[in-house]
Amino acid sequence: MIPAKRKVPLKVMNSQPNKTKLASGTLALSCSCRPVLSIKLEHPSTCIHLDCLRLPETIVIMLLLCLLLVTLTPAFGDDLLTVATNNGCGKIAGLIRSAGLEDALKAAQAVTLFAPNDEAVAQIPSDVLAQLQQNATLLASVLEFHVVPQVAHAADITNDLLLPTLGAGDAKLRLNVYTSTQTVYHSVFPAITVSHNTTQVVTAEGSAVVKTDLAADNGLVHVIDKVIYPLPATNLPLTLTFNKELGSLAYLIYQATLTDALVVTAEGSAVVKTDLAADNGLVHVIDKVIYPLPATNLPLTLTFNKELGSLAYLIYQATLTDALANSPFTIFAPSDAALNKLPGQVYNDLLMNVTRLKEILFTHVVKGVVFSKGLSNGETLTNLQGTSLSITSGADGVKVNHVKVVTADVPATNGVIHVIDTVIMPK
Fold this sequence. Notes:
Blueprint: E1 10-13, E2 20-24, E3 27-31, E4 36-43, E5 46-53, H1 57-77, H2 80-86, H3 90-98, H4 102-107, E6 111-116, H5 118-122, H6 126-134, H7 136-144, E7 147-148, E8 161-164, E9 172-188, E10 191-204, E11 207-216, E12 219-224, H8 236-242, H9 247-255, E13 265-266, E14 269-278, E15 281-286, H10 298-304, H11 309-317, E16 329-334, H12 336-340, H13 344-352, H14 354-363, E17 365-367, E18 380-382, E19 388-394, E20 397-400, E21 403-412, E22 415-420
Parallel strand pairs: 6-12, 16-22
Antiparallel strand pairs: 1-4, 2-3, 4-5, 6-7, 8-9, 9-10, 10-11, 11-12, 13-14, 14-15, 16-17, 18-19, 19-20, 20-21, 21-22
Helix pairs in contact: 2-3, 6-7, 8-9, 10-11
């Protein structure tokens, strides 16, 4: 076993009171001239006891330094795989060699290996193990997730700590610390005493850490009781969706509008992976190509859209073009076909009554930018008229105040447009 601390206690037994001492760091040597010099060198892995004839003190000191060097050589010479093998992780070390990662792991500096023990490897289902052994790329990706490119001492691990790994992308290893206290009552008549036994369990992606801080020449090894596989690749809702046994729960979560409890979008495209490091920046993965590009403000975007020109004209007639051109807004825009549904007299009255026209237009506008990913079933939005717009989402699509959204996420430089098929009339 490789000692975590490399201090070597050294004892020199000499009955003579007259001593010469040499001290350097944690090493202290004491010797003197006498017919027989008795020396005992103690180390966790070695105990050397020798009796010397009368020798010059300098020679004795050199002899002791040589013995010390021989004793410390194993502690400073063992690489990560050797340390892992010596601590019951020989099978995972063999898989690391099979994946062609041995040289890279030996060359790495200041790394931490979370090494599954032999019992953990034996628990891998035979078909899964065969798949890993036949696919070197997959095996390497699994093993790289067990390696952290920094020295992570057990004392520095905190609950829900995320550590970077050598895995692809932004793969992070989640560490947890669980503390439990058991109350024990001791009865020794006539008194009753109480004691509290506290235990602590550290896990890496749910695998218990059973040995910690095993020192190697280029890092540390922590032994865990389970191979981390499959790797955490998606968030909770997506993981449920892609699991053939959990699809029903994923559907219920979707129906309860909890899937997008936290959504980040880029021009309406959901960001599904974040902070993937590159040598010259970062990559965020999105679920949709951003097209068409937001090239003009909201009024101009309406004007240039062949289905929305009538609404753009009404906004102009209501002198709202400038007001909607700069600040961020979301417009639920009735299409030309939707406006054509209005009786002719109603449409003409709106052109003659600017106040009423503004009321109707403000009913369709919400302050702030809300792409479709941010519209949740049962949600209520407040429009510029000060009234509520109720959002419903289901198998037949998204509706606002029971009016169907026929085209979502038309981007503009200062907001977004959702095209609807009917005019929402204020009460």
